[in-house]
Amino acid sequence: MSVRITALVSLLLTAACSEQTGPLTAGSTLDQILGRNSAEQIVRNFDPEQMARGQALFRKNCAVCHGRNAEGTPDWRKPLENGRYPPPPLNGTAHAWHHSTEELKNFILNGGPPGEGRMPGWAGILKDQEIDDILVWIKSLWPDEVYQGWYTRIENRPK
């Protein structure tokens, strides 16, 4: 195991020191993989009060399925007997960051994604501002690399 970790660290250090441009290869840097220019680091300026509200709302309404700290259900990648998937992590370790804020808000309002899980719709239960607060708290949990990749490739993409 330590040999693998050492090899991975060496690969990442080598890639980080290269000035490669063009298509992605085994030597691509993390910036290239995530489609970002390291000179344009995205800064998260989340309102601490909004994050606190979002955390409280999440724990009150969402934690029963997604875990107190958005860690998800164990074996969330394995379908249940009914063929649907259990609640995934929302902390940046699963696929929530593959969706724009608009898409995430739609999932919360209307449930879904259809046929894949059992996410109930929260329209009429949570107000728009409450959903926005929850989403800010969830995004605050994402590692910097995940947030950077999400922002540059998903959230800020041309529509």
Notable features of this structure?
single chain, mainly alpha, Cytochrome Bc1 Complex, Chain D, domain 2
Tell me about this structure.
The protein is an all-alpha fold and 159 residues long. The chain folds into two domains: 2-33; 48-155, Cytochrome Bc1 Complex, Chain D, domain 2 (Orthogonal Bundle), CATH 1.10.760. The chain is built from seven helices and no strands. α3 (48-61) crosses α6.
Given the structure, what is the number of helices? 7
Radius of gyration: 18 Å
| Class by SSE composition | mainly alpha
Domain count: the total is: 2
Order of helices and strands: HHHHHHH
Q: Any idea of the CATH topology of the largest domain? A: Cytochrome Bc1 Complex, Chain D, domain 2
Percentage of residues in strands: under 5%
Query: Overall 3D geometry?
Result: globular
SSE layout and pairing:
Elements: H1 2-17, H2 30-33, H3 48-61, H4 63-66, H5 101-110, H6 128-141, H7 144-155
Helix pairs in contact: 3-6
Brief characterization of the structure:
This protein has 159 residues and is mostly helical. Helices cover 47% and strands 0% of the residues.
